[in-house]
Amino acid sequence: MEQILEILNDLHPEVDFTTQTGLIDNKILDSFDIVSIVTEISNEFDIAVPAEEIIPDNFNSAQSLQAMIDRLLDE
């Protein structure tokens, strides 16, 4: 989780990502942020994020991002 929080904090240091939910729903993250996050996740965890995983539910919180990464790492 620490790596995810670091990625998110680099994008928006003013947001408390440990408690924030609704990052997409509340328009905290935009499409450019999502592209940056996917790129960072791919580099950091050496995984490919398939297009079907790029949905709001997977990016609404740091916890949902972690769950997606864990799922992709298990595949």
Structural overview:
With 75 residues, the chain is an all-alpha fold. The protein has a single domain (2-74), classed as ACP-like (Non-ribosomal Peptide Synthetase Peptidyl Carrier Protein, Chain A, Orthogonal Bundle). The chain is built from 4 helices and no strands. Helix 1 runs antiparallel to helix 2 (31-45). The longest helix is centred in the middle third of the chain and has 15 residues, at 31-45. The chain is globular, with a radius of gyration of 11 Å. The chain starts with a helix and ends with a helix.
What are the main properties of this structure?
75 residues, mainly alpha, Non-ribosomal Peptide Synthetase Peptidyl Carrier Protein, Chain A, 4 helices, 0% strand
Oligomer: single chain
Work out the helix count: 4
- The stretches of 5 or more residues where confidence is low (pLDDT under 50) are none
CATH architecture: Orthogonal Bundle
* Total individual domains: 1
Helix percent reads 55-70%
Instruction: Please trace the helix and strand order, writing H or E for each element.
Output: HHHH
* Named CATH topology: Non-ribosomal Peptide Synthetase Peptidyl Carrier Protein, Chain A
Q: DSSP strand (E) fraction?
A: under 5%
The main pleated sheet reads as:
none
Using DSSP, what is the number of strands? 0
CATH C-level label? Mainly Alpha
Shape: globular
Give the rounded overall mean pLDDT: 96
Based on CA atoms alone, the radius of gyration comes out at 11 Å
Within CATH, the superfamily carries the name ACP-like
**SSE-based structural type:** mainly alpha
